């Protein structure tokens, strides 16, 4: 019989790409991970990994087993959620991940609502880029997270994660009437590898040019301060632009950022997850979108 713990390691390898990364996430040694995966291959009766020097990739059978692992591990999470619901109301720690804008604007009223409605819950918040959320949820480092998706950028959550839409907000351009009009400007974007950076690059490409990025800044308040100082143009979401500094004009664009709640597949009915998502929704009417 296949061991779910080993299936989890195989799924992590598919998501993280290296034995070393899986070992770090699972708090094992690399040799222990390799031994567990070798044991899984013996249980499966077919090669799951192709080893070339220090490089390890999944075979077609390995990729097929990962698909089934997502279903198996999702069912186990579903069983855990059902048992938690049978024990009564939500209690204990609930680990929440959020990108900075959501952490600043949405979480304070949401957490106030959550702790008032469920005094037994202990919310624990960590800021995290949405690109890192799937790995954190799979590894159990988070229970639920707020993630965002942009137009022009495909979703970053994987098959092990489910999402529920919460709200959408418009995107704005600083000090220019359109993206096309900013063709010759210096640009301020987030760091490469973030969804915000990818969105800005692709919005410019859709307008027919490659942006000349001069500054990489993740904090939108700092981005707006740079724009106010004439250091470049930038795209900012509505929640980050409710009170722009003097001298910055904002043009609404036909682009949106979409915020969703994310959790492991099968885990969405856990009482703590349901309570957290309900609190997120309760806090939404107070937002200026």
UniProtKB/TrEMBL annotation:
MF terms in GO: DNA binding; DNA-binding transcription factor activity
A Gene Ontology term for the protein's cellular component: protein-DNA complex
Domain HTH lysR-type: residue ranges: 2-59
Keywords: DNA-binding, Transcription, Transcription regulation
Gene3D superfamilies: Periplasmic binding protein-like II (3.40.190.10), Winged helix-like DNA-binding domain superfamily/Winged helix DNA-binding domain (1.10.10.10)
Alphabetized Pfam families for the sequence: HTH_1, LysR_substrate
Homology family: Belongs to the LysR transcriptional regulatory family.
PANTHER family: LYSR SUBSTRATE-BINDING, TRANSCRIPTIONAL DUAL REGULATOR HCAR-RELATED
Name the record gives this protein: DNA-binding transcriptional regulator, LysR family
Organism this protein belongs to: Nonomuraea pusilla
């Amino acid at each position: 019989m296949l061991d779910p713990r080993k299936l989890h390691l195989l799924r992590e390898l598919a998501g993280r790409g290296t034995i070393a990364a899986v070992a770090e996430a699972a708090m094992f040694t690399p040799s222990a991970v390799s031994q567990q995966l070798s044991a899984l291959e013996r249980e499966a009766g077919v090669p799951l990994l192709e080893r070339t020097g220090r490089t390890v990739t999944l075979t077609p059978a390995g990729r097929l087993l990962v698909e089934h692992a997502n279903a198996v591990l999702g069912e186990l999470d579903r069983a855990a959620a059902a048992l938690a619901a049978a024990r009564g109301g939500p209690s204990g720690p609930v680990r929440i991940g959020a990108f900075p804008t959501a952490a600043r604007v949405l979480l304070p009223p949401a957490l106030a609502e959550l702790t008032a409605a469920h005094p037994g819950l202990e919310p624990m918040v960590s800021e995290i880029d949405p690109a890192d959320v799937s790995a954190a949820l799979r590894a159990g480092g988070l229970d639920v997270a707020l993630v965002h998706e942009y137009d022009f950028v495909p979703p970053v959550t994987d098959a092990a994660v489910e999402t529920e839409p919460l709200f959408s907000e418009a995107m704005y351009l600083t000090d220019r009437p359109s993206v096309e009009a900013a063709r010759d400007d210096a640009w301020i974007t987030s760091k490469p590898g973030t969804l915000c950076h990818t969105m800005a690059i692709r919005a410019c490409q859709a307008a027919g040019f490659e942006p000349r990025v001069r500054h990489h800044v993740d904090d939108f308040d700092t981005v707006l301060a740079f724009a106010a100082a004439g250091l470049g143009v930038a795209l900012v979401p509505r929640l980050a632009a409710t009170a722009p500094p003097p001298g910055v004009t904002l043009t609404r664009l036909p682009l949106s950022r979409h915020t969703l709640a994310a959790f492991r597949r099968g885990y969405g009915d856990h009482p703590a997850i349901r309570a957290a998502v309900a609190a997120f929704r309760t806090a939404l009417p107070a937002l200026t979108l």
